[in-house]
Amino acid sequence: MALTATTPTTATSALGATATGSSADSEQRFLKLLVTQLNNQDPLNPLDNAQLTSQLAQMSTVSGIEKLNTAFQSLLAQSGSSQVLQSASLIGRTVLVPGNALTMQQGAAATPFAVDMPAAADSVKVAITNAAGDTVRSYDLGALAPGVKTLSWDGKTDGGVPVADGSYTVNVVSTAAGAQVASTALTYAAVSSVAQSGTGVSLDLGAGRQASLSDVRLIL
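Predicted structure:
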């Protein structure tokens, strides 16, 4: 198990240096153009004070925005590193996240899973299928309110016959007033490592499976 975090110092320093250089270059070019404009203005129609003040204000605004962007990028980098460190406490813990894969091993305890209902449904049916797509176990949950409904599978068919060891899939179909509504199967997985990605903190659940912090519904 490992904790992986991209160090933001180098990237932030480079970004800050680039922004600082860009701001300084822009100011130099502006001042050069302003001086040239003043030196070559028409004596009979000199540059208006209001125009000069407006140009100076615009330059100040551009410079301020560049400095604000630099500070914001630095803050984001620090926030990302802080999230990774806080998420390190999840390593070794079991989380409930979206997923429909179940692994059955005879002799093991019942396999838990869950159904996430963003909205209420009049009818919720769950089917567990084998690798061939055949339904081996079905659940009729009836009407469900919004929320997470936890379930468990004892590894047997609807007829009470133990299934073979292997991988199975959870399928959920939910309807309300005859129309299909959103519902998501949830399964449990152990967090082996956390890392900072371009979209935030990513949890490595093993077997090539990834999840984000926002995916976590329950922590055991």
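Summary: The longest helix spans residues 49-87.
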